[in-house]
Amino acid sequence: MAKMRNVAGEIEGSKKAMNFCIKNHIPEVDIYYDYAGIENWARGIWKTNKKGTIEYKEFYNQVKKNLKINFMKVKAHSNNKYNDIADKLAKKALFNSSNL
């Protein structure tokens, strides 16, 4: 997802949370996001026209068969403590994976 650096971390974080729930038999998850694409690509509201968004939509379509996913919008850049932490972790994870 090199061409989607601005949202790649959020997409990967969402996928990891969904995978964690599937692997641990957790039936439902709340995905908090600040970038609308996280929900809109998954639900088919926005067109998926890049490799990363296509793969994310396909992943969501498979996972939703076994997991109830609730998308929860959080306002970006609003000093939300947990959103700020998530943004920092997503950037760190993306940076670390690109240096492997």
Automatic annotation (TrEMBL):
One of its GO terms (molecular function) is nucleic acid binding. Residues 1-95 form the RNase H type-1 domain. CDD domains: RNase_HI_bacteria_like. It holds the Pfam family RNase_H. It comes from the Eukaryota. Coiled coil: none annotated. InterPro entries: RNaseH-like_sf (IPR012337), RNaseH_domain (IPR002156), RNaseH_sf (IPR036397). This is RNase H type-1 domain-containing protein. It comes from Anaeromyces robustus. The lineage of its organism: Eukaryota, Fungi, Fungi incertae sedis, Chytridiomycota, Chytridiomycota incertae sedis.
